[in-house]
Write a structure and sequence with these properties.
The structure is a homodimer of 256-residue chains. Chain A has helices spanning 28-37, 53-62, 75-86, 99-102, 123-134, 159-169, 181-191, 205-214, 246-255, and strands spanning 9-13, 19-20, 23-24, 42-46, 72-74, 90-93, 111-114, 139-141, 147-150, 153-156, 174-175, 198-202, 219-222, 241-243. The first copy, chain A, is of the alpha/beta class. Chain A folds into 2 domains: 9-75 and 178-255, Rossmann fold; 86-175, HAD superfamily/HAD-like (Rossmann fold, 3-Layer(aba) Sandwich). In chain A, α8 links the parallel β12 (198-202) and β13 (219-222).
Chain lengths: 256, 256
């Protein structure tokens, strides 16, 4: 899938592309300023579900990034919309820090919703979810990423718990965040931009690049964050371009 | 796979067949006495890895079962043998109650060994295992059962954590307990009995019946423990017989 000659919007993953934990990736702050100067509409798409959007924005701004809350689409907020649209009353297994954003679990749930509880994933909470799944409740997950890059190395993401619950329950989860096509489409619809006229920049080959491609959006893979050398030789996920980092991706777009 | 007309050994799963938690299944104590009276050699095969063999035997005897330790093959002890045979120095993520039976984790491990830590499965411990797997260490698991029956209902077993770690790491686990063929073969070799002359009685369609069949041993599925009605109509796992409980399985063998 080729890059558009004149892109009309840029979708940008956050963790691993602009920053790792609370550290900006070298050159990323200035590259974002340069991209802003081009006047292209930007949207930031994150599957991070351990923090509410307000804290994500505050953290990005503290690192020096000029980003506002309404430019950020999170898997948590997309899940909140989906739950409201379907009129569901879920049991939530999520990080305590997003409880205020997603709402409280219902005593008599009609769905199960999983976020990245991180260190709060505990056996008893997983067993409760397992039993609800065995009763046939729909299984909705904010993301199913395999891992992410933290300052001390690659770190287990919520996909492990999704896959494990799927295995034991024999049930299949519905993913709300990347790589789900509606997660990308919602953002592009708001901007009024066709998929082939947009570009996504991400560090996750399967969920960023693979998801964007499935939605018709060309993707640029950066060699930062969770990137691993083998990602450049994947049999099916082929980025439109692979560049060293976010600054190189912006330079590539400027040269187009 | 037909039942032998004159079986020469009976292999029996424990949890869900003879008992649930610390309660004997009705009729199972007397049925085991009747089976003993037939003079057939018996062996008990368990994937339970939350308790050492000594405690499993004590619990069975407290319920009234006439079973000795040397008749029980556990996935923990099979793993200990495999680790010794290969000269491995594993990192263990196991239940604290079997630490004395399996040994301590090595500071510079050359393998990862997972048991059913149960309530002790915690995010940080799983992340440590994930990182070792990403370094390429062999991944050995005592079992990968999906769930088991406890007194308060179907309960998440270690297979969820195995499947989750496989998903995130992209690595494949080697299973030591059921349904691994060597786990059955070791027992039959000790008894000098050919697979087709033995019978297995179990409540787990995939790991008991499927595993036994793969090892050439006809299996009887009981409708107790984790049994679910759908197990009787599985497309590939077809027990030699399905009976209500252990007592009915013993009666079936006596009538053969």
């Amino acid at each position: 899938m080729p890059l558009p000659t004149a892109p009309r919007a840029v979708l940008i993953d956050l963790a691993g592309v602009l920053h790792i934990d609370d550290q900006a990736i070298p050159g990323a702050v200035r590259a974002l300023e340069a991209l802003r100067a081009s006047g292209l509409p930007l949207r930031f798409l994150t599957n991070t579900t351990r923090s509410p959007r307000g804290r994500i924005v505050a953290s990005l701004q503290a690192m020096g990034f000029d980003i506002t809350a309404d430019e950020i689409q999170t898997a948590v907020l997309a899940t909140r919309r989906l739950v409201a649209q379907r009129g569901l009353h879920p049991h939530y297994l999520v990080h305590p820090d997003i409880a205020g954003e997603i709402g409280a679990s219902h005593a008599t749930p009609d769905a199960v919703v999983l976020g990245d509880a991180g260190p709060h994933f505990a056996y008893d909470a997983l067993n409760t979810v397992f039993r609800l799944l065995m009763q046939g409740l729909p299984f909705i997950v904010m993301a199913r990423n395999r891992y992410f890059m933290a300052r001390d190395g690659l770190t287990l993401d919520m996909g492990a718990f999704v896959a494990g619950l799927e295995y034991s329950s024999g049930r299949q989860a519905e993913v709300v965040g990347k790589p789900a096509e509606p997660f990308f489409r919602t953002v592009l619809d708001e901007l009024g931009v066709a998929p082939a006229d947009a570009v996504l920049i991400g560090d996750d080959l399967a969920d960023d690049i693979g998801g964007a491609h499935a939605a018709g959006i060309p993707g640029i893979l950066v060699r930062t964050g969770k990137f691993r050398p083998a990602d450049e030789h994947h049999p099916t996920h082929r980025p439109a371009a692979v560049v060293d980092d976010f600054a190189a991706a912006v330079a590539l777009l400027a040269a187009a």
